[in-house]
Automatic annotation (TrEMBL), chain A:
It comes from Escallonia rubra. Belongs to the importin beta family. Importin beta-1 subfamily. It is found in: Cytoplasm; Nucleus. GO terms for biological process: protein import into nucleus. SUPFAM superfamilies: ARM repeat. This is Importin N-terminal domain-containing protein. PANTHER family: IMPORTIN BETA. InterPro entries: ARM-like, ARM-type_fold, IMB1_TNPO1-like_TPR, Importin-beta_N, Importin_beta, TPR_IPO4/5. One of its GO terms (molecular function) is small GTPase binding. Keywords: Cytoplasm, Nucleus, Protein transport, Repeat, Transport.
TrEMBL record, chain B:
The lineage of its organism: Eukaryota, Viridiplantae, Streptophyta, Embryophyta, Tracheophyta. It is found in: Cytoplasm; Nucleus. Keywords: Cytoplasm, Nucleus, RNA-binding, Transport. GO terms for cellular component: cytoplasm; nucleus. This is Snurportin-1. It comes from Escallonia rubra.
Amino acid sequence: LRLYLKIVVSPYRTEMAMEITQFLLSAQSPDAKIRTEAEGQLRQFQEQNLPSFLLSLSFELSTDGKPTESRRLAGIVLKNSLDAKDATRKDHLVQQWVAIDITFKSQIKGLLLKTLGSSVHEARHTAAQVIAKIASIEIPRKEWPDLIGSLLVYMTQQDRPASLKQATLETLGYVCEEISHQDLVQDEVNSVLTAVVQGMNVTEQSPEVRLAATRALYNALDFAQTNFENEMERNYIMKMVCETAMAKEAEIRQASFECLVSIASTYYEVLEPYMQTIFELTANAVRGDEEGVALQAIEVWSSICDEEIELQDFEEPETGDSEPPHSHFIEKALSSLVPMLLETLLKQDEDQEQDDGVWNLSMAGGTCLGLVARTVGDAIVPLVMPFVEANILKTDWRSREAATYAFGSILEGPSIEKLSPMVHAGLDFLLKAMRDENSHVKDTTAWTLSRIFELLHSPSAGFSIISPANLERVVGVLLESIKDAPHVAEKVCGAIYYLAQGYEDAGTSSSLLTPFLPNIISCLIATADRTDGSDSKLRSSAYETLNEVVRCSDLAETSQIIIQLLPVVMNKLGQTVELQILSSEDREKQGDLQASLCGVLQVIIQKLSSIDETKSIILRFADQIMVLFLRVFACRSSTVHEEAMLAIGALAYATGPEFAKYMPEFYKYLEMGLQNFEEYQVCAISVGVVGDICRALDDQILPYCDGIMTLLLKDLSSGELHRSVKPPIFSCFGDIALAIGEHFEKYVVYAVPMMQRAAEVCAQMELSDEEMVEYGNHLRRSIFEAYSGILQGFKSSKAELMLPHAQHLLQFIELVSKDKQRDENVTKAAVAVLGDLADALGSNVKMLFQDRSFCTELLGECLQSGDEQLKETATWTQGMIGRVFSVCG
Amino acid sequence: MAPHDLRRPFKRPAVSDQQKRRELSLLRQNQNRRDAQNQARCLASTVLSFPNQPESAFEPEPEPVLEDTEPELGPRDIDIRQSSKLRGPEARRWFAKQLMLPEWMIDVPDRLSNDWEDVRSGLRITEWLSGRGAFRGQGTHSKLAFLVKHHFCTVWTVVNLRSGIFQVNFWCLCKKAVLITFFSDVRYVCARPSGQRCFVVSSNGITVSRLRNGSLLHRFPSALPNGSRAKDASRSAQSYCILDCIFHELDQTYYVVDMVCWAGISFYECTAEFRFYWLNNKLVETSACDGPSRYHRYRFSMVPMYNCDHEGMHTAYTGPVPYVRDGLLFYNKKFSKLSLGLYQLVIQVPVQRTAVKEFKVAVAMSRLALEYLNLHAHYQTGNTPLALVWKDENCSQYVIDTDSKGQIPHQQQVVLELQDDGKLTTYDDPPVVFGFLNGEFIQKTELVAGNLLRFSVSEGGLVFADGKLEKADLQYIGKVNRARAFADSYSKIMFQHMARHSPLRIEHLLASICSPSEQENVARDVEMLD
């Protein structure tokens, strides 16, 4: 009845749009006062009458003659009223839109469609985006049935200007990107694609329309799934794409190659018939076309490599019928493809090392060559080596750089057996090339060395290009070259990084590097202190490399060296606090430097506290270190320093109960970290630190628990906080409960219902993609860990408190035990909590266990596992369940 | 239109490990959490290799102390706590029921060192006491068929490992007496101390040791929980311990060979692995291993346990021990008494997809069987194949039984129990019949059912056919000493018989611990199975 009334009423009501141009302009004023005031007024309008506000915005956007600035902002605000990155917020916005009176909505939509005919390009473009946002809400709900019809009318009417067609195609593209083809009937899908593909036709007079159509097709490629399954339709679409790839206008050609890139990955399995054409088109583009087009042409091949690498990586030994075929396109094209890519390597920019944003033909070509090597393995070597040999000694630096780059690019993919003799033969040459007169050559040489150490230096796996005989020379060259230009030095850091990494856990080989470490460490610190770099990249690379050197060293041999490093790093961190801060830029620089140094401290703390002999060193320095961290925290007012927080966790672990004395000072920063929703990583790390502190302090943490639990519970209920932080919070409940034992009693009424709700969420979770499966596993494990901590914490005195929750927990374990997607960690946590339940509640849960055959199955599965830890836990759990049945005979 | 994402800079990977540091921290935190929880569970990584671990590796945690709660006592609890007060026949009966008596090893268990992995890949049925079983075939098929036919049920579950390969788990419920095991042979071995086998019970501030027949050996204060009045005065009456020990006269030490109860917690249903692990930690913790003192009259000591491989067996057989050796004792690591009777066999076989349906039916069956198990699994006391004892003249002074004067009788003597119907049976469940006394003889000698009678094995000896005892030529000697609580077990009689005629030698045992090449053979056997 209400709906009926509205429809009847609507023709007689004309909703009035408000005049808001001035507010929109003022909101962009350079004068902060005017700006803030205007923003406030707009917000007030929005809050008081959203429908009228949105209508006014669309009116602003649609009215030619209004200032471009106010129209632009109107469009942005409109878009932001319909869509948001955050899922919860987006949901809210959608509900808001759906609830708006239909009269307003149709007027808004009418105005937007009208805007597509505007003479102002920017207005058309914005309207196209807003229409797509509304379509994404309304089309799945069948609430905008005539949209597609209206847009198609714009396309077919002869007398309409090209600009309208262009805007309409753009709109169609965006709409296709937003919705699924299943939201429309197939006829509509077909008409949309027909309109788009027709727009791409050579007969289309206007290049703007042709370009818009090609870009619309790019956005509609997923949408065209059904059409791609039909050979005739597919042939037609591919024909149009290939035709536009040869269009007069470079922009259209580029858009067309972008379509090909997307098609190569989305429709790999149907590419076969078009490969000859694709090869010719791309080869021509790579060799002769403008850079933008050529880059996309190379990208086509990189995409095909991606697909084939993925097919190879996930190849199942027993292939079922559903698996997509591997067409070996790269292998088949290899002999022509590789020479084409090698040519691109010679097209370097003169100053390509200066700017990180540079992406040119030579880089794209080298990247693609690397992917080809990973796709075909050994077969690439004979095709590349002649090029390397022919160019490496030339006087022209481009030839030498290209030869080195080619060599470095193919180090991943071919077998060690194939590569090893070449690299052995070439290593000495590369070391000499670190003294080349040209810095590009040195840059690429250092990068190639880092690739060699990354891929061909693994003493723990039994092979290495480095021998005791050449190590001294390698280190000598690296430490000499680290003084070179900043971009070269950065690559050298990378080489040292992988050189050190190779010696991690390498047994006796680890000792080989030890004599060089003092020198390496002091060179890295000197590098970090350099001031000639344009940004902080070199410094952070030097510190990260230092971390890896420390982390991978053999502690028994290097403890003295690391102990000497500790005060040096502490001193540096102390200096950062004294830095004069005049601008926000200064503040940022300070923060970056502190991040690097806290990182080093964390690595040192973790390294030295890993064995008792050196742990005492950390204990000796603990007070000073903690004071430093607190001073670092004090440098900021509203956020906590993530790296410092991370390091504090390591410190708490090292100090144990001693950490209690830092708590009064540290607690406020911990609170701050736990409340940091925006930088969720900081929040996650703070949660982890709570766990570290619990284990360090045991029940000494009790005075802080009310505060911590309140914040954790708030975090859990927040829709704002990134979901990845939630599982660690549950684990943290377990940590707290284990630390404070019976005192956890007062939190049970809050924590356990949360755990139960989360368990129910797990049960209903749609595990459609890998990421969700992983998240689901993480959540399950952490819920189990929470229960484990509580049960073990209560075991000696308050176990009966958990009795009412035992059944729910058992059901959850049963559910999880029957899920085939659970990972090993979930299984471990499940079998452990099963034992905890039996251990803590004993014969009280006898009845619950009696008819649960899944326990036997789960234990059986675990006892067969190859994982000793899991078997051990299962053995224990079996014992505990056995006891449940024995206590009362 | 959003431009196509450019590739990551291939040549310019910025060295940034912040994410790696986060992950390493998380890893450390997870590890620490696991350690903390495992410590709360008293489950340390030392559990699998404890004989080689220094005892200090484990941090003790406070024992559960039940102070002001007085929960209802089950009948079993009362039994155990009052056992120290039991006297005479009552005590005998009680102890006879509680003791886990090792079977005597009369045939080499198939591959003594068998570990889990072997069995997973090898379908081998082990017959410890095959003399008693009716089958000796080598073919795996026939053995399986035997199981299916003669035991409660055999069911199987199927786990789809990956396309085309299914793991088939066979579950087989066997009567205890049918000593078949598929893979339970993960064993410990130790040198058995020579001395008096006894139970040590600590409760109410005093410790009592009793021999197998229930007679008192010592009454003394000890450092065991509630074992003396000196300390732990507040400990509740529930905190008692029952240890299975051998009292070694020479050094006046109780060597603990097993544990039934610790601080009021029953370990009946726990695996040997777990029991030893617990015991090892707890004994040290309570300082029961310390030398004698005012409140601790006898030292307790653990017997060093070894994994039952070549090295372990060799060490147990010849390695130095602080006590006089009397044979070797084998323990089954993985099985508790509760799980006895349930044997699981796991094999991986390629299964046609069409066969899956049948397996699904089987899965349903397996559930039923497991429920059955849950209802019907009882404590297995008395003779048990979970512990085996073996000896020869190198590791024991008493290979062949002596009489009360310490002399080896000319002929083997056996003690059998007289039944209502005149049958003479062993102490086994079910009993094995060795002979028959006619009513006239019973009346004349005034014997009654339940009497334990001593016989000597005459010239006729023990005659076997097809692995089964066919005839025993027995000569009645007389009733046994009143202290004797039960008859000989079948395996003991068999061991003694063999010790006199064809003893089982250490070489046989060592040979049964198969070499790696043999394991491969076994694996190949299995592949032929499907």
